[in-house]
Amino acid sequence: MSIRDRRVVNISVNAPGDNQRSRRVVLSSKGGFCFWRLLLILLLILLLPVSSMAANLTCSRLPMLMEKYLANHYAMKNMTREINTHAVDQMIKSLDPSKTLLYESDLKRIKPVLQGVFASMQSGECAALQKVYDVIVARARENEAIVKKILGPDYRLDETVELNIKVKKRPYVKTKAEKHGLLRKVVQFQIENALLAGIDLAEAKKQLIHRYELQTMRVVEHNPEKLITSIAEAFALALDPHTSYLSPENFEDLRIQMQLSLEGIGAALSSDNGFTVIEELIPGGGAERSGLLKPKDKIIAVAQEGEKPVDVIDMDLRDIIKKIRGRKGTQVTLTILRQEEHTDRFDVTITRDKIDIKEQEAKITYETRTVNGRQYYFGVIDLPSFYGDGEGNKSCYEDVKSLLAEARQRHVDGIVLDLSRNGGGLLVEAVRLAGLFLDKGGIVATKDSREQVTILANGSPASGTEGNKRSVLTFPAEDFRALYPGPLVVLTSRMSASASEIVAGALKDYNRAVIVGSDHTFGKGSVQVLTPLPWDLGGMKVTTELYFLPGGKSTQKIGVESDVRLPIWFILEDIGERELDYPLPSQAITPFLGIRGNAVPFWKPLEQKMLTELSTRSKVRVAKDVKFSEIIRSNKEAAGKKGVIRLTDLRKDMKKESGGKKKETPAELKKKARDQYAPFVNESVNVLLDMVTL
Question: How confident is the model at residue 372 (pLDDT cuts 50, 70, 90)?
Fold first, then answer.
């Protein structure tokens, strides 16, 4: 049975954000650990996010959707009172994620209504959603009015304002006075964000008022029929954190993310105060090749080939993206507004083409260290995700295989495999990639709701792995010349999830690699299958199996523990499977660890004595390292604030971070992100050096 027939696909590409929705269409990574920058992003989405809509998802189709989820889910097979309660909670969270919209009394009114909607889903009855819609529209209009009053002629920036950004621990407001006080704090931080970007106070007030007006408009447009999409999303999330309903737009985004390619113009876009802004031009894309577009350009109209332009100011970003994307070879004309010394308005016609998103591909860099007069040479492979298109045209396994061949030609003394920002990807790619370091043997096992265990192996696994409830799915044995037998370190973090944990866990269980990084990885031990839905409804991502490492343990809620532990960024303290809503419990199966015929492995297995010594040496270095000391100091300060931040502290830290510049360029942001990761990569190379020299 082929992998394609089984459709075993782990698609939690960004596991920490499974329950989150982004307002920016990102085609390239700009990751980083900066606490304050993350905070500003959070503040920007304190408005009322609205899920994307599936035009064809009607109430009458909810019973079919619900039946599909329950029939395919690993553990949840019937609609229970507990699932109903979870679904209601998820729906409320989607309506008011920042707890700035609804009153405590509103919850008492709409919870029984939503409970009735979810209870009657099987009969396709959604008329009661009108009551929910009426409440959120009234509250959105109320918020808009409050913000306009706050930003009136007497508005002054209050630098003593403090805001608790831990929404989970913040109660819903009880009175209008409480809401006014909360929104006043939120507005202060939003205004400060604009001021730090170089916008004067008068313009910042104007833009923020317009943003709340737009938000009200979005809520009004999100009528009861469109709330059905939110109902489907909430029901899916009530089953477990990684089961989800994907609207057609989100379904397409996921496909792009996994294949690292799309057909379009090649630009990263964002929404800013009603304008669609070009954030970045993707190298090789039509937008860059035109030579006419620049970052910060605003797209104000879009025209299809042979058609009149459509004004897109104040239009939802999702709808604009749909107009710009299209088949390879077709043309789209963008009307651009550019504000520099002079304001220009002009048209640019771009031919859509296939764009490879190179920035997310595996890459290798090289590091040197000198000990006792001898120079050591190491390769560092950065793998942001386990990507692939299923057809062999795009494969992280093939890319890493090529990088290892290059490293062998350069006679490296060791390899660091950096999975610290890798949130997962395709299961097949992870299994094949692990085989490059392990040769033959079982890599991971999956168990379905019928207790059937399937072991995925490269070549032949150890004997005794098959039985009544066990089967083996094998991939071709790797060419011995492609294998890497040398010293290996795997760098992980709390963001390393799913497929990353499969690779790191298998290498750890076989005593093949030293795991360096945070205390443990994310802890996502479940497998999702992505299924297209009929009638252009998008897709269904449902948890169908748990996976298990060769030693028999699941990483579910536990993750893979590090052998050499590095300091963890404070903002990652709440990252992990156990922090999500309704995670499945961890389990274990009979181990399938071993090499066929008890053959001697082609690498030297690590011993606990070595791991202990490596950990001891690393602790000494970390204690003396200036950058790690700064991370530890920042962590203590952040922990002491307990989620409460002050406007003056935000301003001071942002100016320190940006060096006094109003706004950093994409290149500067990328360099900053690399610098923030540098101590972790540097220490992983130091651990590798210890391995080689001990």
Answer: very high
> For the chain, what percentages of helix, strand and coil (3-state, to nearest 5) are there?
40, 20, 40
Q: How far apart are CA 613 and CA 564, in angstroms?
A: 10
Q: Which pLDDT tens digit goes with each residue over 679-694?
A: 999 999 999 999 999 8
Q: Which domains does the chain have, with CATH numbers?
A: 28-240 (no CATH), 261-356 (2.30.42.10), 359-646+673-693 (3.90.226.10)
| pLDDT given for residue 462 in this prediction | 61
| Between residues 394 and 86, the one the model is more confident about | 86
User: How far is C-alpha 660 from the geometric centre of its chain's CA atoms?
Assistant: 30
Position 361, amino acid: E
Among 544, 527, 572, CA closest to 12: 527
What is the residue type of 220? V
Give the C-alpha separation, 433 to 159, whole Å.
52
Using only C-alpha atoms, the chain has a radius of gyration, in whole angstroms, of 26
Could you tell me which residues come within 8 angstroms of residue 597 by beta carbon, excluding any fewer than 6 positions away?
463
pLDDT digits (tens, 9 = 90+) for 568-580: 877 777 889 999 9
Contact 266, 286 (CB under 8 A): yes
Cα 442 to Cα 437: distance, rounded to the nearest angstrom: 13
Cα gap 452→540, rounded to integer Å: 23
User: What 8-state DSSP symbol labels residue 368?
Assistant: E
For residues 216 and 226, what is the distance between their CA atoms, to the nearest angstrom?
A: 15
